[in-house]
Amino acid sequence: MATERLRVFSGIQPTAGSFHLGNYLGAVRQWVGLQETHDAVYSVVDLHAATIPQDPAALRESSRLAAAQLLGAGLDPDRCTLCIQSHVPEHTQLAWVINCLTGFGEAARMTQFKDKSAKQGTDATTVGLFTYPMLMAADILLYHTRQVPVGEDQRQHIELTRDVAQRFNARYGETFTLPGAYILKETAKIQDLQDPAVKMSKSASSAKGIVWLMDEPKTSAKKFRSAVTDTGTEVRYDRAAKPGVSNLLAIYSALTGLTVEELEQKFEGRLYGALKTEVADVFTEWVAPFRARTQQFLDDPAELDRLLARGAEKARAMAAPTLDAVYERVGFLPPAR
Ligand code: AQP
Questions:
Q1: Closest ligand 1 atom, residue 10 Cα
Q2: How close is the Cα of 115 to the center of ligand 1, in Å?
Q3: Entry pTM
């Protein structure tokens, strides 16, 4: 008897012209693997991107580019559901219910909001940024998601999603499936190449510290070769004592499938420079076919849009019954048909 596949859901923001290596290794790479074993739903979350000011034309372009990169990374629309978040209105419709179920203090404790709003200042911070985690909870709960493949920075949002789902179920009867985070320890947090104490990030990394997948490979190779390493000379994985070297080993290992132990042996007696050069080479080799595949999808926008329309249709077929059940339980009067 065929066993039912567990549902996974995850999203990525189209907030830059390119994904960075942290996005890929922390999340997207797992998405590709999970489509073979799970019932996978993935979304380019443009509504989340709108929580900070976006140029309309650039946002449209980045949304197509994000979808093309996901396909270039190996997502197959016949093996998973891939859609643009704003094509599925049930996300915002459920988000309102989740907003009304979340405590203000509970939302105010989200560290990502605290960090970003502290950096931007209150006047530049939107209410949308504050309610971002509730929209994310709606994204996840709409699809009865069991596992959410993300990087470590999203763990707190998934815990909030569980809390709110439990609250809804206790108040209105069993409705939502409780999700859990699917986070791979080794790549949960890819660090900035220039400041290995902090995560590689679109909004916080310096130009030299972040590796953009759509950049010319030689630009990225140069960044690897000038990555900040640590005191000492031994190539050894030790996140506390050697954060720079450990980050490079984690990247090398994720891109090649070699274990960290195998890499430590390979670099025994060799200096940090050798590690940096080899990671640059490994990345260059990996990224070339990724960029070529992404470009193929970008070269045919009509086909890309067709794939995304089909993805939205599949997603709506899953999302609509959940929203109907929620609205009925909450007590919204259904429109006469
Ligand atoms: N450095 C990272 N290491 C591992 N995983 C990461 N992710 C992001 N940075 C790292 C994971 O990528 C997925 C998509 O993230 P997103 O769309 O939320 O992008 P983001 O969080 O906006 O990416 P940044 O660079 O972290 O942006 P800012 O600086 O704006 O916060 C998520 O699963 C995320 O965990």
A1: 33
A2: 14
A3: 0.95
